[in-house]
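Human:
Take a look at this sequence-structure pair and walk me through the tokens.
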Amino acid sequence: MNVSPTPSPFLTGQFLLAMPGIGDPRFERAVIAMCAHDAAGALGIGIGAVVDGLTLHDVLAQFEIATDGVPAAPVHFGGPVEPRRGFVVHSTDWSGQDTVDVAGRWALSGTVDVLRAIAEDRGPARWIVALGYAGWGEGQLDGEMTRHGWFNVEGDEALLYDTDADDRWHRAFSAAGIDPRMLTPSAGSA
């Protein structure tokens, strides 16, 4: 007898997409890579917007890490919590002292060792650098998911690494079979 696993109520390894009219300008058209979600709370890294005028070279320079051969990749707005704290969402082919595996889909590191590894061409093959994160306390995200505001989709490597930040929101809705132009900025009532 085959018993299929019960789907998890948690969103680790998925993407959260902000619905039009979410009500918080910091999250308009947000795409958040959910890195941890359980009964105690949730943490995600925003991948749908970049910080204007800031590149990986700027971040490396702050740590006095050489930028030779390192692409001047954009730095993403990871979220409003601890906006000066850096994170790297990356492929699972590299692991450092604080790396967290995210449902086998990607990994998350938050210490300078991942930046050094990237700069020395011995780090993960694919990565996104972000400042800040989005965080939810116990039960907070679960409550938000029952109201108008967020839509979740499966984690997709192509969306994460092969799509420009400005295109991720539209592409993620389209991949879910939804034309985001048809979404309304408020929830209906019955």
Remarks:
- The CA atoms of residues 34 and 44 lie 4 Å apart.
- Strands lie at 14-18, 31-38, 41-46, 50-55, 74-77, 81-90, 100-102, 106-109, 127-136, 150-154.
- The mean pLDDT is 90.
